[in-house]
Amino acid sequence: MGVELEFDGGGVRLAATLDLPVGPVRGGLVVLHAAEAGHRSYFCYEHLAGLLPGAGIAVLRFDRRPRVNGHDVPLADQAADAAAAIGVLRRQVGDVPVGLWGLSQGAWSAPLAAALRPDLVAFLVLVSSSGVSPAAQMRYGTAEQLRLHGYGDVDLTELGRVRATMEAYLRGDLDRATAQAAIDRAAERPWFPLVYLPRELPDEPGTWRDMDFDPVPVFAGVTCPVLLFYGATDAWIPIDDSIAAWRRATAGAATPPTVCRLDGCDHYPTLDEGEDLDSISPEYAATMLSWLDALLPAG
């Protein structure tokens, strides 16, 4: 049973759960969220809380701050909340190495927190870390969805046009009527439910603040050890480009990132795209435990 806590996240009280080892604490881990998994009870986070305390590692999970007017939580705010959560964890476990674990969107905010606060973040464990911007990642991922469902070049070209049109509106470079007309045409296509386009554009541009966030300069600012997990068949992340981005950005680092490609996994570290604790990849769990055991001081 975890310890229930609260802390301040930019003026919002965030509920948290802390799972502690029975014996000596060797290190700590703060969990950062995927875009559609903002609650601390998500099964990938519960897996960490069940796995790591047995290895002497405390785990802090918290509820991500709520969206405002439907807008996603800015990555800078998520990074600030991560730093605040580390402070909460440190008050519970003392002066031991504390790192961040991030999944998908959380694998953008975790390196950002590490680059901004190298004094706080001792290591990173990242699952599906994209080395391209959110906008570029969605272009790639939605095109892959069409390919996987058997659509061809004509549909892929139309998808590319409509995403470019939507992005232009969100950047403030195109009027809403023109962009909405493109969305309306795309909505008639049978593939529209696959591509995560809004049926109605927001009334004002600028609602996707991080769409052109460039992670590479952030990666270059990360000085701590990094463990990267990628599902071998991940259709949402350009895996090779992302690994190359990490390697370019950290070419001068004393310790290059450790990369693990997970057989049988897609975007999440689960077998056969499962969505429960039983589907978590044993390779993922064993690799993480081994890497953290070698990194952290003996208990």
Automatic annotation (TrEMBL):
<keyword id="KW-0378">Hydrolase</keyword>
<feature type="domain" description="AB hydrolase-1">
    <location>
        <begin position="31"/>
        <end position="272"/>
    </location>
</feature>
<dbReference type="GO" id="GO:0016787">
    <property type="term" value="F:hydrolase activity"/>
</dbReference>
<dbReference type="InterPro" id="IPR000073">
    <property type="entry name" value="AB_hydrolase_1"/>
</dbReference>
<dbReference type="Pfam" id="PF00561">
    <property type="entry name" value="Abhydrolase_1"/>
</dbReference>
<dbReference type="InterPro" id="IPR053145">
    <property type="entry name" value="AB_hydrolase_Est10"/>
</dbReference>
<protein>
    <submittedName>
        <fullName>Alpha/beta hydrolase</fullName>
    </submittedName>
</protein>
<dbReference type="InterPro" id="IPR029058">
    <property type="entry name" value="AB_hydrolase_fold"/>
</dbReference>
